[in-house]
Structure formats: C-alpha cells, structure tokens
Amino acid sequence: MSHAPDTLLTALRATPPLVQCITNYVAMNIAANVMLAAGASPAMVSDVEEAEEFAGIAGAVTVNIGTLSPPFVAGMHAAIRGARGAGRPWVLDPVACQATAYRRAVVQALVAEGPTIIRGNASEILSLAGEASRGQGVDGRDPVAAAEEGARRLARSSGAVVAVTGEVDYVTDGERAVRIEGGSPFMPMNTALGCSLTCLCGAYAAVAEDAFDAAVAALAHFAVAGAKADEGASGPGSFAPRFLDALAAVTPADLSRGAIHDAAVPA
Predict the structure, then answer these.
(1) Which residues are substrate-binding (predicted)?
(2) Which residue in 203, 227, 228, 229 sits closest to 215, CA to CA?
(3) Which residue ranges are tagged as binding site?
(4) What stretch of H or E contains 169?
(5) Is residue 241 part of a domain?
(6) Total domain count, the chain
C-alpha cells in the first residue's frame, strides 16, 4: 500500500523508529542531530562484535562508506546480516565510490547484499551504474539529470530504490520516478548533510511499507526544511542551526504542498 509523505511523517513522529546508523566519522554528530530533529532515534552502532545483534532490534540500518577501514566494513556486513535476518530495510550511501579501487570493491560487495534504498549524488550513482562520472573525491560534479537513466538501470539491476540528490532530486524504482524540488544553495556548503539524509531515508523506511514512498518522504522532508532554513540565512554558518530547527518544524501539511513532481519513465 502506498502512503504519502505527510502520512509517513505523522507515523514517524508518533513512534520514532530506532535506526542503526553506520556512518562516517565526519557525519556522526551531525547525522544524529538531524535524526533527532526530524523525529527519529539514531544509534551509531558499528563494531562487528555487536552490529548484527543490534540490527535485529533496530527498525532499519543505514550504511555509509565515507571513512572506510576493514573493521568498519566488517561491521557493515554484520549489520546487514542482522537486518536481513530480521526482515528490516537497509540503506546504502556509496560515498565517493568511484574514487579508489578499494571503494569500488567495497561498494560492489555491498550492492550485492541487496540494499532497500541507495542514496547518492549523481557522480556516485553514475559510477554504480557503470558509467563515467566527473566526481572528485566526495564531491559530485555531475548534474542529477545526467544520472537519471543510470539510476533507473541501477534500480532494475539491484532491486533497490535509487535516490539521486542534488539541486533537484530524483527517485526511482525503475518503474516509477519523481523529482523533488526545494532545499537551499547553502546545503552543499555544510558537511555531512547528504550522509544525514541517508540516515533519514532509513527512518522513513522503518515506518513505510513501500521503500519508494520512504525515499520520497525523506527527500521531501529535507527539501522543505532546507527551503525554510534558507529564509533569513546569510551563509552556510547561519544556515546550519536554522536547518535543524526547520527539520523539527516541518509539518505533515508542509510535505503535501507541491515539492514532489511525477517524472516520466521511458519504456
């Protein structure tokens, strides 16, 4: 059954989902604050000794490859085993997956584990789809529109919902697609907001029956909050606290006011 973003936000705040966020060291504090402001409950549990067990009690798991090391990767796979064993959704953020051979190998193994949602910038999604990208390190240099066809192919081959984020976001499961407008030019100037959005995708996936609906709702929540925070912000520094306030202030009614537009999916 499909649920609109406003319904999912109501559900998320009524029973805040516990989300196991395996994210990078740069993002942990920011992502935790974003999750709390939005209405979810984050837990940064990543060690292999407990990651699988904890995933069994979490509502969802998110995996971000921003700061890689073999122990971190082992914890990721353990958490994914726990999520799959408990029938929980898990979200993959392929940070800079095109940058090094190690990252490419790690992300290929993670995609093979069957993520529920993949969220990345256009350069990362192009790389996962087997296409050339202009990404430099963690910075995406490709426009979202350039990755839309690759996102549809990746969704069909992986079985995941694919969310491409940028100036105008694009979400597809290979058969359906939407674009989401909003946000602020200051968002790319604040570190770890994309990583935090991946965690929020996990929160919405924990309360949604349809992963496509979950990704759309999470991206709409971010887009609306970003636009609200942009009002009165004079730069990236003043934007950051306004964004946390805006995440908390977004109402279900705000998510039904035109940020989401259907996109045609070529046959």
Answers:
(1) 44, 192
(2) 203
(3) 44, 119, 165, 192
(4) strand 169-172
(5) yes
(6) 1
Return the pLDDT at 138. Answer: 52
* Residues 6+ positions from 188 with CB-CB distance below 8 Å: none
Give pLDDT, residue 267. Answer: 58
Bind-site residues for ATP: 119, 165
Residue 136 DSSP class: B
* pLDDT value of residue 136: 52
Radius of gyration of the chain (CA): 17
Q: Which residues are annotated as a binding site for substrate?
A: 44, 192
Q: Is 267 inside any structural domain? A: no
- Residue 21 CA to residue 41 CA, distance in Å, equals 10
Angle between helices 193-207 and 5-14 (to 10 degrees): 80
How many angstroms separate the CA atoms of 193 and 126, rounded?
20
How far apart CA 164 and CA 184 sit, in angstroms, is 16
Please give the helix or strand (H or E) that residue 50 lies within, else none: helix 48-55
- 85 burial (CB, 10 Å; 0-12 / 13-18 / 19+) is exposed
Give residue 141's domain range. 5-262
Using a 10 angstrom Cβ sphere, with 0-12 exposed, 13-18 middle and 19 or more buried, the burial of residue 78 is: buried
CATH number of the domain where residue 13 is located: 3.40.1190.20
